[in-house]
Amino acid sequence: YFEEMIHRFREGMTQRLWDQWCAIGVRGVSEKSREVNWIVDPEALLLASTRLFSFEPRLRDVATDWVIRNGSQMSLARLKSIRKNRGFSNETELRDLVETVREIEPDLKQWKSIAFPGGDKVVQELTYNYRRSSTSPDPNSAAGTIFNFRGLFGVNSRAEILLWLILERSAHPALIAEQTGWFTKTVQKTLNEMALSGHITYSQIGRIKHFSTTPEIWKPFVDYEKTWWVSQPQLYDGCFAVLDSLEECSGKLPSERVAEIWMGQAIEKAISNFEKSNDLDYVVAGKRGKVQEDLRNIIEWIESEKDWPILSLESKLLQRKYR
Predict the structure, then answer these.
(1) Per-residue exposure over 238-250, b if at least 16 CB sit within 10 Å of its own CB, e if not
(2) What is the pLDDT of residue 117?
(3) Could you give the C-alpha distances from 136 to 16, 71, 86, 207, in angstroms and in order?
(4) 88, 240 Cβ separation under 8 angstroms
(5) What angle do CA 70, 74, 77 make, to 5 degrees?
(6) For 65, what's the count of Cα atoms within 13 Å in the CB-facing half-sphere?
(7) SS (H, E, C) the chain
(8) What angle do CA 56, 60, 65 make, to 5 degrees?
(9) Nearest alpha carbon to residue 315 among 266, 272, 267, 274
(10) What was the pLDDT predicted at 29?
(11) What's the CA gap between 5 and 138, in Å, rounded?
(12) What is the mean pLDDT of each run of 10 residues along the chain (323 residues)?
């Protein structure tokens, strides 16, 4: 049972990651890739992909290829923040990918800080055939929206913070930090600076500032009525919590009762992350059921080409309409 669930999870998640790599510039890797109508998060996508490199080696190849071509459009500071606060990446695979990238593309030498935060270390000998199959992301596509904002405002926290405010309207810095994957102090400092422009405003609620903007003034840069924000660090943290528990149950073969407790705890964490990532109530299973029912529904959702990752576009649209 556990092996079957693990295999289905890995296959479903691999396909969802394929979709996103194709949407931001990888070419000729999957005939089954579907259109991505939400904002792709390149840092979270890379970290999540490392977790499945051993399951699907081609995923390693396309991720490496894309980073070599487009690594300058990624935020190392944000990647470090997500990596520190979320535990879903495979550190060995990430270090090996970064070493390959640095060897092939000297202009990305600053990536050394990702591979070896404590100094040089020896990694396994790598063999990689650079195919040059990636193009630059389309900044005018829904999937490539973050690259549009990074092109305008720089590869820094301003891009994610402003985009989040346009799409999600208002919040205090701690929530914005949680949603965007940046450190709280970075978000607080950036918001205070951006407020000087007059385009970012805030209201004081007790000792806490709640920042907001007027979406209409940003209409030329993003269609905020048709563009969807999903906090993907939280999304993947929830997904891989389920996989971690499945793998633990498969390896240790606990009693049925113990396995149910372990899986139940993982599912609770996953659901909490899903709700936060989408700003929605839990709708994967409709009504909560037994542990096995919830597990099956989560995996079917990951396998779904229709509902991933926003759960329900109709619910999101309805919520935004009456906000």
Answers:
(1) bbbbbbbbbbebe
(2) 55
(3) 20, 10, 27, 43
(4) yes
(5) 155
(6) 23
(7) CHHHHHHHHHHHHHHHHHHHHHHCCECCCCCCCCCCCCCCCHHHHHHHHHCCCCCCHHHHHHHHHHHHHHHHHCCHHHHHHHHHHCCCCCHHHHHHHHHHHHHHCHHHHHHHHHHCCCCCCCCCCCCCCCCCCECCCCCCCCCCHHHHHHHHHCCCHHHHHHHHHHHHCEECHHHHHHHHCCCHHHHHHHHHHHHCCCCEEEEEECCEEEEEECHHHHCCCCCCCCCCCCCHHHHHHHHHHHHHHHHHHHHHCCCHHHHHHHHHHHHHHHHHHHHHHHCCCCCCCCCCCCHHHHHHHHHHHHHCCCCCCCCCHHHHHHHHHCC
(8) 140
(9) 274
(10) 58
(11) 35
(12) 92 94 82 81 97 94 94 94 91 92 88 66 53 88 95 95 92 94 95 96 91 94 88 93 91 81 87 77 50 85 79 42 35
Distance of CA 106 to the CA centre of its chain: 27
Please give the C-alpha separations between residue 272 and each of 81, 210, 230, 239, 267, in angstroms, as whole numbers.
Answer: 20, 23, 14, 11, 8
The C-alpha atoms of residue 94 and residue 52 are separated, in whole angstroms, by 11
- Both tokens of 189, joined, read 């400092």
Give the per-residue pLDDT at 30: 55
Distance CA 265, CA 262 (A): 5
Give CA–CA dist 177/171, Å, rounded: 10
- Cα 54 to Cα 38: distance, rounded to the nearest angstrom: 27
Amino acid found at 221: F
- Asked whether the CA dihedral 176, 118, 237, 12 is positive or negative, the reply is positive
Query: Amino acid identity of 310?
Result: I
Q: How many CA atoms lie within 13 A of 119 on its CB side?
A: 0
